Amino acid sequence: MARPSGSDAGVTGPRVRAAAERLFARHGYAAVSMRMIAAEVGIGAGALYHYTPDKQTLLAGLMREHLDDLLAAWGKADPGTDPVARLDAFARFHIRFHIDRPDAVFIAYMELRSLEPETFAGIEALRRRYETVPEGILRDGVAAGVMAVADVKLASMALIAMLTGVNTWYRDGGRLDRDAVEGIYADMARGMVGVERVST
Amino acid sequence: MARPSGSDAGVTGPRVRAAAERLFARHGYAAVSMRMIAAEVGIGAGALYHYTPDKQTLLAGLMREHLDDLLAAWGKADPGTDPVARLDAFARFHIRFHIDRPDAVFIAYMELRSLEPETFAGIEALRRRYETVPEGILRDGVAAGVMAVADVKLASMALIAMLTGVNTWYRDGGRLDRDAVEGIYADMARGMVGVERVST
DNA sequence: GTCTATACACTGATAGAC
DNA sequence: GTCTATCAGTGTATAGAC
């Protein structure tokens, strides 16, 4: 039995966030109006303010949620074994997680400038925490003598940039599937940080 | 002798473009008003329309100019010798060129979505042409047997993403100077595409 | 070449009816 | 929980004086 109209039982909130995510990613935060978001959801603009106190909070919420998910997901995906295996896992995890959420990724990386200072600081701290993941892996790898990098911090930034770059061109149904892409990038990641090649 | 006021002899046009570049990079195209640009230059908003027919054209001009400069500069920097030397030159060139123009780079990469379709196509073609540079180098390197990549196109995209990523953290006067950064990245680039290490 | 004045649409956010 | 109506402010772009 269909329930009486008006009792959507908490589905509108998520729909508002989903619409905002899509539109912010597509057009940019500043270019999206609250009326556009409301129209996408199918409600009036005034009704949006039952789900967010303002536009800025809506954006910050999307970013925080994305980064929290990212950190939590790596916590589960981290094999916690030797550095080379962790590097491989990290490369594959990062690509998989990012190509599954192109909109959230784009917003989290590009709309930092749209945040007010205090909000920015909190989000930036989460980003920074994620950057320490590859740093730890590389530091361990260098210490164990199985990796060779001139600078752990630079190599970590280079690795993240390389992996995140997949989002600029990857499309489902393209020439290579996810697994192939992950494998090729994991390979390049190993070469980048000086892991000795297995087959040469 | 100072010339009579009002005869700035074509300096206002460049100042308009410079102000727009700075502001678009800082706040995003959509968040910047023509009034803000005019205020930065020190003229009224109406006077801007002597230098650009509209805001969109102003943006597209900045992007086109940046990409034209990039392609021309590589044309002069390309040593045109063996693939390994060209890879090294490309990595160093790309980093140097990009960290010297952080605003233009940010705009060219991030405001593509702010362009109307026809304008977008022209800009995108220039970007695509630049991507063929590392593709050619890697193809030659693989053919010559001095590089080993699973996929030339992916490796090119990975290389560009890695190098462009320097712009997200590099600041003049930081821990490492330009030349050191270039050297470290050129090293990682070699490892990434399977060039045999000299010192091991 | 720059100014002021102006057009008219749209902005984020609020108030109060239902 | 959603609606309509509304606020004060700002958006791009143009017209015409100087």
Automatic annotation (TrEMBL), chains A, B:
Protein keywords: DNA-binding, Transcription, Transcription regulation
Entry annotated with the keyword Metal-binding: no
InterPro entries: Homeodomain-like_sf, HTH-type_TetR-like_transc_reg, HTH_TetR, KstR2_TetR_C, Tet_transcr_reg_TetR-rel_C_sf
Every HTH tetR-type domain range: 10-70
DNA-binding region extent: 33-52
One family name in Pfam for this protein: TetR_C_24
A single MF term (Gene Ontology): DNA-binding transcription factor activity
Coiled-coil features, chain-numbered ranges: none
Protein name as annotated: Transcriptional regulator, TetR family
Organism: Jannaschia pohangensis
